[in-house]
Amino acid sequence: MQTQQEQQQNTIMQVPPQVITTKDSQYLKDQLSWELLAMKKCRHFAQECSDSEIRQLIDKAGQMHQRHYMLLLKHLQNNNTEEMKKVPQSQQ
Question: Do 39 and 69 meet the contact criterion of CB atoms below 8 Å apart?
Answer without folding.
Answer: yes
